[in-house]
């Protein structure tokens, strides 16, 4: 039986007890699916702390997607990460004024393929659009994530070759919010 999408709402730090196991399980699967050889436990612990810190950051807004009342995915509007700002600075590329990053997009295994990532992206972009923000950035580390975002957003604008290890690149998209919102709403 397939569970159905029931909505999106803004998350708070009070939601971390529900978010944590979803993140840890999803991140573990990403590490396995992308054949990351490093010990997983320290990576999961470090990334869980990063997610919690981002959730605490007043400049971040997280959205959760729900299936039958259970948190099944999340994504955040975040300050642009150092990976992106450092790369842009080194390349002499300017970040569009006021742009924000959409990041921390994780969808639980049972909710994948049901439109949760699109609904979360739409909620985040709608929030940014209401504040007058014109552009967003999104980056992807894992090959499986890169494949998904390439299908949804098109070819990445910037590819940091062999960033993590040989043949593991880091991809960055810079997009106009109105353009992507229109595309999502047409689907």
What's the helix and strand layout?
Blueprint (H helix, E strand, L loop, with lengths): L4 E7 L4 H18 L6 H17 L4 E7 L2 E9 L3 H10 L8 E8 L8 H15 L4 E6 L2 H11 L4 E8 L2 E9 H10 L1
Parallel strand pairs: 4-5
Antiparallel strand pairs: 1-2, 2-3, 3-4, 5-7, 6-7
Helix pairs in contact: 1-2, 4-6
Summarize the structure in words.
- It is a single chain.
- It contains 6 helices and 7 strands; from the N terminus they run βααββαβαβαββα.
- It is an alpha+beta fold.
- The protein has one domain (about 5-185): Aminopeptidase, CATH 3.40.630.
- It has a 7-stranded mixed beta sheet.
- The longest helix has 18 residues, at about 15-35.
Pick out the low-confidence regions.
none
The largest sheet has its strands arranged as 1-2-3-4-5-7-6
> Quick check: average pLDDT?
91
Biggest sheet details: 7 strands, mixed
* CATH structural fold name: Aminopeptidase
H/E series, N to C?
EHHEEHEHEHEEH
Q: Output the number of helix runs.
A: 6
Q: Tell me what the CATH architecture is.
A: 3-Layer(aba) Sandwich
Helix residue percentage? 40-55%
């Amino acid at each position: 039986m397939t569970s159905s999408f029931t909505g999106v709402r803004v998350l708070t730090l009070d939601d971390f007890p529900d978010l944590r196991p979803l993140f840890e399980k999803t991140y573990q699967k990403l590490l396995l699916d992308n054949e990351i050889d490093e010990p997983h436990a320290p990576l999961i612990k470090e990334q869980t702390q990063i997610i919690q810190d981002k959730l605490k950051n007043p400049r971040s807004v997280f959205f959760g997607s729900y299936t039958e009342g259970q948190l099944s995915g999340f994504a955040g509007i975040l300050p642009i990460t150092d990976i992106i700002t450092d790369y842009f600075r080194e390349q002499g590329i300017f970040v569009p004024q006021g742009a924000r990053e959409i990041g921390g997009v994780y969808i639980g295994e049972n909710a994948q393929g049901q439109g949760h990532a699109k609904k979360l992206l739409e909620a985040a972009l709608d929030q940014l659009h209401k504040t007058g923000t014109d552009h967003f950035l999104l980056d992807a580390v894992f090959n499986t994530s890169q494949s998904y975002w390439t299908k949804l957003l098109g070819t990445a604008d910037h590819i940091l070759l062999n960033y993590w290890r040989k043949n593991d690149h880091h991809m960055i998209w810079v997009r106009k919010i109105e353009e992507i919102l229109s595309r999502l709403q047409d689907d």
